[in-house]
Write a structure and sequence with these properties.
CATH topology of the largest domain: Alpha-Beta Plaits
Strand content: 35-45%
Helix content: 25-40%
Pfam families: SIMPL
GO biological process, one term: DNA damage response
Distance between the termini: 57 Å
Strand order of the largest sheet: 3-4-2-5-7
Shape: elongated
Organism: Pararobbsia alpina
Number of helices: 4
Number of domains: 3
Oligomer: single chain
CATH architecture of the largest domain: 2-Layer Sandwich
Order of helices and strands: HEEHEEHEHEEE
Protein name: 26 kDa periplasmic immunogenic protein
CATH class of the largest domain: Alpha Beta
Largest sheet: 5 strands, antiparallel
Keywords: Signal
């Protein structure tokens, strides 16, 4: 037998062997007694952070003068807001844009600046926003769940969702006549939802506006949910 014939026979034998293994792998039946399950647990948690947006609008003949006036007003409000303990103040959006006449020519400039207030202390923010209303008007109020409250809720719900998953697996295994189960794979995820309920305030110039009384703030709830998905192998 020549070397060429030996190599040819080896190649053919390898191909047949691979084909036999591949066919054998294709005929392996899927594992029996496997259940795909899911479970979840939810909790309504009171929103404990308030976000108040203050805004100031002005117009001028040139953009440089307008930008200077907006920055001056913003800095003044920020300085006053940062004196209030328990409230975080930061600058928001600032925009300057032209006003045009009916012929499309620039007739002036308009601008808007914002300051955002964030706090756990609703009463402090309410009082502060009211005291600043002669300089900046309230344009928007929203509420959210703090990371601490969210994490605490997820920790509690994770235990409940996992316990429900295991109970479902035990009940289903018993119903199918098995004595128990082992977990094949599992994943745990969490989410949060809340109905949109922003308090939109009317836009108006703060120039010459009187101070407002304390703004009533009432938050809603956020729904925190933990999902558990996976599969189990039922055992005798």
């Amino acid at each position: 037998m020549t070397l060429h014939q030996s190599l040819a026979g080896l190649v053919v034998g390898t191909v047949f062997a691979f084909g036999a293994c591949h066919a054998s792998a294709q005929t392996v039946p899927p594992p029996a007694g496997v259940l795909n399950l899911d479970a979840s647990a939810s909790l309504d948690v009171p929103q404990d952070v308030v976000h108040v947006t203050l805004s100031y609008e002005q117009q001028a003949d040139d953009p440089a003068t307008l930008a200077g006036a907006l920055n001056e007003r913003t800095e003044k409000v920020l300085l006053a807001a940062k004196r209030q303990s328990g409230v975080t103040a930061q600058t928001g959006a600032l925009s300057v844009y032209p006003s045009t006449d009916r012929d499309g020519h620039i007739s002036g400039w308009r601008g808007r600046s914002e300051v955002r207030l964030d706090s756990h202390d609703f009463a402090a923010v309410s009082k502060l926003a009211g005291s600043l209303s002669s300089q900046m008007q309230i344009s928007n109020v929203t509420f959210s769940l703090s990371p601490e409250s969210r994490d605490a809720a997820q920790k509690k719900l994770s235990g409940e969702a996992i316990a429900e998953f295991r109970q479902k697996a035990a009940d289903a295994s018993a119903a199918f006549g098995f004595g128990g189960f082992t977990i094949r794979e599992v994943s745990v995820s969490a989410g949060e939802s809340s109905p949109p309920r922003p308090m939109m305030m009317a836009r108006m110039s703060a120039q010459g506006a009187p101070k407002m009384a304390d703004v009533p703030l009432e938050a809603g709830d956020s729904t925190v949910t933990v999902h558990v998905n996976g599969s189990v192998q039922m055992t005798h």
